[in-house]
From TrEMBL:
InterPro entries attached to this UniProt entry: PAS (IPR000014), PAS-like_dom_sf (IPR035965), PAS_fold (IPR013767)
Lineage: Bacteria, Pseudomonadati, Pseudomonadota, Alphaproteobacteria, Kordiimonadales
Domain PAS residue range list: 26-77
Membrane spanning stretches: none
Protein name, per record: Transcriptional regulator
PROSITE patterns: PAS
A GO BP annotation: regulation of DNA-templated transcription
Pfam family, one: PAS
SUPFAM superfamilies for the chain: PYP-like sensor domain (PAS domain) (SSF55785)
């Protein structure tokens, strides 16, 4: 699937507050399980998604620096909560509040698991403000690698200025934007 030819439409694919979007991956991030809600929102069949890399639904407005943090955390055996903007096959989008965890068997990481729920409008607007700044920093650099490193530094500076760890930053948005 040539994802770079899909243009974001600006239209949201809606889902209910009680729905949970689930995928599991192998160690490389290739999808090994996807529930019906994931398939519906991504506009894909189970057959389409199994074995595909998870960046299949990557939205171009998502900062690379957030995925870098996600992978660092889960590869270290830790969980992460993150707001993620995803893109369906049509270019429609959907925001999620993701909880990504490693699956550990006999002390070894054997894969990863993500559960996602619908964030509130308040959470979306708070995180968009931060992601817009990270994305702008990434785009200021001609090399994606340099852009990602610079945006990672910017995120660290933003957190240091606020006196927060990443987790405190996440929960501050979560707890202040419930409506
Ligand atoms: C369990 C799991 C769930 C993931 N879920 C998403 C997701 O919903 N959307 C997404 O864009 N990337 C997701 N990723 C991250 C992708 O693997 C990838 O790092 C990201 O899309 C950036 O792709 P890129 O490095 O090709 O730019 C997930 C990774 C794992 C391990």
């Amino acid at each position: 699937m040539a994802r770079n030819t899909v243009i974001p439409t600006g239209i949201a694919n809606e889902f209910g507050a009680s729905e949970i979007i689930v995928t599991k991956t192998d160690l490389q991030g290739k999808i090994t399980y996807a529930n019906d809600v994931f398939c519906r929102l991504s506009e894909l069949s189970t057959q389409d998604v199994l074995g595909q890399p998870h960046n299949l639904i990557r939205h171009p407005d998502m900062p690379r620096s957030i995925f870098k943090l996600l992978w660092e955390r889960i590869q270290a055996g830790k969980e992460i909560f993150a707001f993620v903007l995803n893109m369906a096959m049509s270019g429609n989008h959907y925001w999620v509040l993701a909880h990504v965890t490693p699956t550990i068997v006999d002390g070894q990481i054997v894969g990863y698991h993500s559960n996602r729920r619908r964030p509130t409008e308040g959470e979306i607007s708070a995180i968009q403000n931060v992601y817009t700044q990270l994305l702008a920093e990434e785009k200021r650099h001609s090399s994606p690698r340099d852009g990602m490193d610079a945006a990672t530094k910017l995120l660290e500076e933003m957190l240091a200025d606020a006196g927060q760890s990443y987790d405190e930053f996440f929960w501050a948005i979560r707890n202040s934007s419930r409506v």
